[in-house]
Write a structure and sequence with these properties.
Blueprint lengths: L17 H11 L2 H22 L3 H12 L82 H8 L1 H16 L31 H14 L10 H13 L14 H19 L2 H17 L23 H16 L6 H14 L33 H17 L6 H12 L14 H14 L1 H16 L19 H16 L2 H4 L8
Amino acid sequence: MPQQQPDDYYWHPPQQDFNEVLYEQLRKTPWFMISLVLHLVAFLILSNVEFSSIPQDQKKKVEAKLEQPQEEELQEEPEEEPEEEEPEEEPIEEPEVEEMETEDDVETTDAESEDDAVSDQPYEGKQSNAAIGLGGGAGGAFGGRRGGRRGRMKRYGGQGTAEAVELGLEWLAKHQTPDDGYWDCDGFQEFCKGNICDGKGYPTYDPGITGLALLAFLGAGYTHQAGKYKKTVADAIKYLRRVQDPEGCFGVQAGHFMYSHACCTLALAEAYGMTASPILKRPVEKALEFLYKAQNPNPSGTGKLAWRYTVQPGDNDTSVTGWVVMALKSAKSAGLEVNASAFEGAHVWLDQMSDAATGRIGYVQSGVSPVRSEGREEKWPRSKSEAITAVGMLTRVFISDALGNEDAHKDWIKKGARLCVERLPKWVEGDGSIDQYYWYYGTLAMFQVGGSDWKKWNKAMKKAIIDHQRKEGCERGSWDPQGPWGEDGGRVYSTAIMTMCLEVYYRYGKVFGTK
C-alpha cells in the first residue's frame, strides 16, 4: 500500500485573483491586439448607449435608410406660395478681386492670369501639361467651374463681358418651355413679355439647341445642384434624358440629327463632369456608344474615319466631326472611358481635309472654304469666313491632348491661326461678315493658340459680340440670328452660342500656346 505523502509534497500553483490573471495575459498580448480589443469594446458600449436611446419607430427608419440608399433624382422645384415669395438662391462665387475695368470697357482687358496667361511670343506648340477640361482648377478638369465663375469672368473678360453673359442667360431662362424644359426654336415667342421677339428657327433642331442653351448655363458654373438657375438646368437635363432613345440617340433619328446628338452628348458630359451626378453617367455612356456606332469605317479597310449627318452614311464632314470630338473629349475629361479609335479616325479625316499650301481645312473637300446652304452664298460669302478651319484647329487640339500626338498637329494649328487673324470677327450689317458659328469655334481655338494672335482675336470678338447684344424690350440679353446659320437655329441658337463665346476665359483649360 503506497505510503501517504505529506500535504506539501506536490507543487501547487500560487492562488491568483482575477486582476492578476488579467494583467499577466495582457502583458503577454501584443500591443496591437490590445488596441483592437479596447476599440471594439468602446464601440460596442457607445453603439448600445446611443442606439438604445432612439425610440423604436425611429430605429426602423434608421435601419431602412441603411439598407436602401436613396438614388439621386432631379426633383421638381416646389411651387412658390402666391402670398410669400421665396428669395432667389445666390450662386456660390469665388472671392471677388479688385476690378479695374469699367462697365463698357471691352477692348482693353485681355484674358491674362496665372493659369490662362497669354504672351506676345509666337505659338510654338504645347507649353504646359495642364489637362484640357472645362474649368480647370481644384477638383479636376471640371472642379473649378462648379459653383460659378463670375468673379473670374469679371477679372479676365472685363465687367462688360460678365454682364453680357448674365443677360444672355437671363433671356434664355425666360424663354425656356416651362413644363417640358426644352428651348423651342420656333415657339419660344410664346414666353415673351411685352413685345414679341423675332427670329424663329427650325423645330427639328430643338434637342440640339436645347443642348447648346444648357451648355451656356454650365459654362457659367450653374448646375442642377447649385446656383440660381438650378431649376432651369435640371429641367433641361430631364428633357434630354426623356428624349434619348433606347439606342442612346437624343431626339428623332431623321434629317441631320447627328448635329443635335453631338451637342446633347457634349452638354450631358459637361454636366456629369461638373457634378459627378450618378444619374447622368449611364445616359452619357449610352450617347457615346451611339457615337461609336455612327462613325464611318475607313474605306481603306483599317480603322475608323469620321462622322456625317446620320449613322455610317459613307460620307464625312468636318463640322459634325468637330462637335463629336468635343463631346468625346468632354466625356474623357469627366473621367469616362472613351475609345481611342474614335479620335484616331478623326485625325485621319482632318489630314485628308487640310491643305498644306494654305493651312485651310475643308468641309468635305481639302482646303475649300466653308459651305453655304442653297441661296445664301450671295448674302454670306464663303470668302468672309474661316469657320471650318477654326473647327479643324480646335478638333486637332482635342485630338492631340487625347492621344498625346501634339507634334502631328502644331504646324497645322499655327497655319490656321494666321488665316483666322486675317478674318477677325466684325459685325457689319450688309457686308456678309457676320458668322456666329465661325466666331464660336474661332474663339475657342484662338484662346488655345494664345500670344498676340489671341489678343487681336479677343479684342475684335468682344467688340463685335457685346456691342450688338440687344439692350431693350423682351429681346434684352439676346442676339439677333445673323450669319449663314442664324436662320436655322433662330434667336435661341444665336443667344446660346454668343454667350458661350464670352465664357471662353474659363471654359477650357489651356493645352496649347504660351503659358
